[in-house]
Amino acid sequence: MHAYRMETTLAHDGTLSITGLPFRKGDTVEVIVLAQKHTFASNRYPLRGEPIHYAEPYESVAEEDWVILK
Question: Is residue 69 part of a domain?
């Protein structure tokens, strides 16, 4: 048995079309569909699982930005 790798993208309606395969009309084939791994997913949430530390949890935030306090 020989394996042939082809990459394609699903159409907007979810259909998959593969052309140019090296088989003849009537040949029986097995089709296995594998999703590609996304390269951006490995570092998508770099702070996930990191401990949270608040330096001054009860201090006001951006107090100098309030116009009414000036």
Answer: no
Q: What is the pLDDT of residues 23-51, one digit of tens each?
A: 899 999 998 888 877 666 567 788 888 99
Q: Is residue 67 part of a domain?
A: no
Residue 64: phi and psi, rounded to 5, are -70, -10
Number of structural domains found in the chain: 1
Looking at the domain assignment, is residue 60 inside a domain? Answer: no
In terms of pLDDT, which residue wins out, 12 or 69? 12
Residues in the chain: 70
The pTM of this model reads 0.42
How would you classify residue 25: left for phi > 0, otherwise alpha for psi between -120 and 50, otherwise beta? beta
Contact 37, 52 (CB under 8 A): no
Residue carrying the six token digits 């088989």: 23
Q: What average pLDDT does the chain have? A: 83
